[in-house]
Design brief:
The complex is a heterodimer of chains A (219) and B (183). Chain A is mostly helical. Chain A is built from eight helices and two strands. The chains are: A mainly alpha (219), B alpha+beta (183).
């Protein structure tokens, strides 16, 4: 009798463990394309919000953090957090990663603008056109398709991307020049594996330093 | 026309020398041609990584894998004595940087079992079109590996394009494959 009870309890325990593992597997099996579909849905809603925000004064839109040269909008932080949640991180992990990343983006942007790395409307348009070409020939263009399918049209998506790159392109140009200068400073070929490893480490340290200089705080 | 004995001996010596040279050339030429036999695989691809800003980090790559070999006719084998892996790339990113990693070349059997992994690489200079690519890097390895010429073994060069913790997907992996059959 005792042995039978132990057997039943053992089997029940094994079933519970199997169900738990299966549950975790199901969560892990969300494909990148499915993640992109969720991301597209969020961006579409956020894009609408961005248009609304631009018609209000900045203080009305909600500020997440204030820095020395730049303020971070709550909507931007929320977007970063949502991205990491969709990536599969827990809410707490996503919050911490979003805080770090959104601070880095804004610190880099402020520094790029301070150093004269602005972009014209034409430059942004040209970049978006080039990006369309890269996407069209990419191995994983289904990721793009999944994002765009959540927008009412491809044109609406690219209107949103235009806003994204108004802020990202000055950073890209600034970071590209900083990467080149760092290679010169080290006397290494910019595209050697040695330099790539060195730059990866330096880039992280540099972003951290810029964030410290901004001295971000919650108002 | 008559030749004295010394002249005859001289002419004979010259003819023998010419014949020796010809026979040397005959036996050397095919071997030289064999040592220069090169097989290669290459492909160009673009990879997208979604980033939290709402845009994309992108990387365009061209990856090349080359093997040089010589044939040994008496043992009906090929010796692969020199291989190169190289890539050219262009990337665009703001905060989340895509990085390309070329793995070691591996020779495998037809069943996929690893036979030999080449892990010692020396950097080589590469020529590339700077209007198409931001940069390039390449490496060579000179370890010997011999197989019968009708082998079904193949060489693989795997590569990964990753975008740290801030991109979806985090990593995209691909590989180039080269048949090592030489007959």
């Amino acid at each position: 009798m005792k042995a039978r009870v132990i057997s039943v309890v053992g089997i029940l325990a094994m079933v519970c463990v199997a169900v738990l593992i299966a549950g975790n597997d199901t969560r892990a099996e969300i494909s990148d394309v499915e993640k992109m579909a969720q991301w597209g849905t969020y961006l579409n809603e956020n894009a609408v919000q961005s248009e609304q925000i631009s018609s209000y004064a900045l203080e009305d839109s909600g500020i997440y953090e204030v820095g020395q040269d730049i303020n971070i909008l709550q909507t931007e932080f929320d977007q970063f957090q949502k991205f990491y949640e969709i990536s599969g991180y827990s809410v707490e992990e996503a919050e911490a990663m979003a805080k770090k990343h959104v601070e880095e983006r804004n610190a880099l942007y402020a520094e790029a603008i301070k150093n004269g790395y602005d972009v014209s409307e034409e430059e942004v348009q040209i970049y978006c056109d080039e990006l369309k070409e890269i996407i069209a020939t990419s191995e994983n263009s289904e990721m793009y398709d999944a994002v765009v399918s959540s927008f009412e049209s491809e044109e609406a998506y690219w209107q949103y991307e235009y806003l994204v790159y108004q802020k990202d392109l000055p950073i890209q140009k600034y970071v590209a020049d900083m990467e080149y200068n760092y290679a010169q400073q080290l006397g290494l070929d910019q595209y050697s594996q040695d330099f790539q490893d060195a730059w990866t480490k330096h880039f992280e340290e540099w972003k951290e330093q810029l964030c410290l200089e901004q001295n971000f705080y919650i108002p | 026309m008559r030749f004295n004995g010394g002249v005859k001996r001289g002419v004979c010596s010259c003819l023998i020398l010419v014949m020796i040279c010809c026979s040397c050339l005959y036996s050397t030429l095919p071997a030289m041609a064999a040592t220069k036999t090169v097989i290669n695989a290459e492909e160009g691809k673009s990879y997208l990584f979604a980033v939290p800003e709402g845009g994309w980090s992108t990387m365009r790559v061209r990856v090349e894998y080359t093997e040089e070999y010589s044939n040994n006719s008496s043992s009906y084998t090929s010796t692969f004595y020199h291989r190169e892996k190289a890539c050219m790339f262009s990337r665009a990113y703001a905060t989340t940087m895509p990085v390309l990693y070329l793995d070691n070349v591996v020779h495998r059997s037809s069943s996929g079992t690893s036979l030999k992994t080449f892990s010692s690489w020396t950097a080589i200079d590469l020529l590339y079109d700077p209007s198409r690519w931001q940069g390039a890097n390449g490496y060579k390895n000179t370890t010997n590996a011999s197989y019968t010429r009708s082998t079904s073994n193949y060489g693989t060069l795997s590569y990964r394009v990753s975008c740290g913790s801030g991109g979806i997907p985090a990593v995209s992996a691909d590989s180039l494959t080269l048949s090592l059959k030489t007959d």
